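Figure 2 data, in text form.
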Amino acid sequence: MNQMTNRWIALYVENQVGVLAKVSGLFSGKSYNLQSLTVGTTEDETVSRMTICVTSDDITFEQIKKQLNTMVEVIKVIDLTDVPIHMKEILFVKISGIDAEAKNELFHIAQVFHKGSDVVDVVDDGKDAVLLECKMTERRNNDLIARLKQSFRQIEVVRGGAVAIESISTSCR
């Protein structure tokens, strides 16, 4: 059976006005749902790299890759779905309306999640609020948000989408 699952693509594209609109337009025009899209320039300022997550079945995903390959502005399409990669998503979480005791609990939670290559930092600390900056996998960020929702009421979440690069070794995600 052809099941819906998250698929990852890296695109190298010409760094020109309108390219992002054309790529996202391809997805919206075909009713493909983007889960995440991040874009930034590469070591070559004339080239940008997009990291795209789309939920689709195998047949639809193959169509997406073919359609992206036909775009003049697309230099290269890389399917990251089944290759070893290193991936992180940036996340900011603002927790408001907390007292000193709740802050201590929050600092402890941040410390528990800050392990290995996962980074959770307190980047702003006010009288009754704390701002966390997190650089973890999407799954770990989801786990952190779920944990924070268990203990705190006033939570604001801002996600930046994932970026990924192919692994040099076989360790991944």
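Caption note: The chain has two domains: 5-79, 85-166.
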